[in-house]
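Quick illustration, no need to memorize.
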Amino acid sequence: MLHLTQSQRLQQKLSPAQVQYLKILQLPVLQLEQKIKDELEMNPLLEEGLEMEEEQEEVLELRAEDRDKDDEDDALNTPEEVGSGDEEYMEKEIRENSDEEYSWEEFFENNEGSASVNQYYDGEDERDAPMPARVTLREQLQDQLHLLKLTERQSLLAEAIIWNIDDDGYLHSDFLEIVRGVNLEEQSAFTMDEAETVLRRIQRMDPPGIGARNLKECLLVQLELMPNTSVPRIIAIRILRECWEHFEKKHFDKIMQDLHIDENMLKKAFEVIKGLNPKPGEGDGLDSVNYVIPDFLITREEGEFVVQLNERGVPPLRVNRAYKEMLQNQRKRLSSATKQFLRQKMEAAKWFIQSIHQRRTTMMSVMSTIIEKQNDWFLHGKGNLKPLIYKDIADEIEMDISTISRVVNGKYAQTEWGVFELRYFFSEGIPTESGEEIANKEVKAILQEIIGKEDPKKPLSDQALTKILQERGFNIARRTVAKYREAMDIPVSRLRKRLV
């Protein structure tokens, strides 16, 4: 049985303009540049160029006047729906209803407002810079296939294997499923022995060990391809084949006992293994290259910090003058649908420009406050971070925490100490004996320093690390030390043990 109930609730909703601003706020500089390019292509009333204050006032007045006059015009005309598919018709009608003496070609040739991107770029032309040719890992492997002198049937399987190799150079996909897929699609009948033969030949291509299914196989392939027949190499192969579990857990005594070798020979064999590449595909794929473009440029001038937004590729924007004049001078000759289309695009252009300006203001405010809160770090570098959370910035500049999060996430700042992600400057505090707090990032740095100086034959346990930190005045628990160690990808003491 259905029941109806009545209830009241308060719900806050964001306007489309606010939603657009929040989306633009969270974009890093490269994505912002692309967003502006997309918007310029989609909105004919948005163009590059400086907008004077007088022009901004004219746009606002025009919108108000246009609504009043269009109310009268629309009463005499049949309303028309404006959809995304009507834009070509609208632009065609705009051109057809222009005064005869009004030349669009002449306008765009002579109009001072039609600024090119080069007006806002004072550096060398990037097109003149030679771009290095990049070859992906798959392309590199496919180019070598002809050297293997495979049959046409084997080549089909080899290409399928290469396609499934990941960026680290491993074949983590189910090999049996790959073979079954080739047999089904190509109507072949590969046995697993035949498939293993093709895979082994791929693994011996350059880089050696490519296409291995696990680390053990990867290292063994590289050892087997070594030209020398030295005793340490032979022992290294035996370690991986016969003592893999002991090798993984660094149980050196058990390896020496099982293989009947002394510590000196074990060291020599380990030196051979250390020279192998555990990730043969790393660095060969295009996707493995990441470039960081800073959103902020922070410098010091006469003892004061100067914050600049990195906006070299962000052109100034304004409402298109030609269309604005069209609405002013040709209003009566345009249909109500065309006027509605132009109003919508003008509104969208206006809000987009305002969102860019508001983003700039918010970004500068947040970055300036971060510098103020972390002044010692910006003056002296690492080792001087203070505890800082998003709420501290939000309270200082009277903004919502979610706004601070949008500014911080994915943004980078170039400082005299290097390029840092903004999140680097935020961390919880750890109490000290003096009653003050220190940023947990500083504690992590100290912890890393202690581990870096430990005896590699006798690495420090988490309990020993905790005791050292407590002796230095940090009120910290062993569980917290373990959490920090894991966050820095530092293994437990047993796995840090190594031969010297």
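Residues 336-373 form the longest helix (38 residues).
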